[in-house]
């Protein structure tokens, strides 16, 4: 049901096991950018407990290389007063949805912080862009820790 609602909102889904769909996804992303749609990409390619920033996958960054579109890096951090974010909020490893949701709904509150940083792109190759964006997110994480 969540996937259905996300699809209605324009979400494009990548099957991590089907590398052959990268071309199709890149065409869809390029079309969205040409229509001036807001595109949000989570380039880690998987989920984690949020303690570290995983390396960024570069193939889906191809549509923005040399495009002139404005880019931003962002960091989303979550906080729980009554639990462990990595184990109770983040959905990763071999977790199953229903028990995870039931536990999540038992929490008194979830706080979130979002930091943004404009990225000067230039004419970077997608792999260079992935490294650059990753560094910027790490910088935002450092800034968040020291705040």
Produce a short descriptive summary.
With about 150 residues, the chain is α+β, with helices and mostly antiparallel strands. It is about 35% helix and about 15% strand.
Uncertain runs with pLDDT below 50, 5 residues or more?
none
> Which strand order do you get reading across the main beta sheet?
1-2
- How large, in whole angstroms, is the Cα Rg? 17 Å
Beta-strand level of the residues, as a percent range?
A: 5-15%
Q: Helical proportion?
A: 25-40%
Instruction: Give the beta-strand count.
Output: 2
Q: Average pLDDT across residues? A: 90
Main beta sheet strand tally, sense and closure: 2 strands, antiparallel
Helix/strand order, N-terminal first? HHEHHEH
Report the principal-axis shape.
globular
End-to-end gap: 38 Å
**Class by SSE composition:** alpha+beta
Question: Please, what is the oligomeric state?
Answer: single chain
């Amino acid at each position: 049901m969540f996937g259905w609602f996300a699809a209605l909102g324009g979400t494009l889904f990548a099957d991590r096991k089907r590398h052959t769909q990268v071309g199709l996804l890149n065409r869809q992303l390029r079309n969205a950018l040409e229509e001036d749609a807001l595109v949000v990409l989570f380039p880690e390619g998987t989920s984690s407990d949020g303690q570290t920033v995983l390396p960024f996958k570069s193939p889906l960054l191809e549509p923005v290389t040399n495009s002139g579109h404005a880019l931003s890096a962002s960091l989303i951090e979550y906080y729980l007063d009554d639990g462990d974010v990595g184990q109770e909020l983040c959905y990763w490893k071999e977790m199953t949805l229903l028990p995870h949701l039931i536990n999540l709904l038992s929490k008194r509150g979830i706080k979130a912080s979002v930091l943004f940083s404009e990225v000067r792109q230039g004419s970077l190759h997608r792999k260079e862009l992935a490294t650059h964006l990753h560094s910027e997110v790490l910088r935002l994480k450092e800034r968040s820790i020291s705040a």
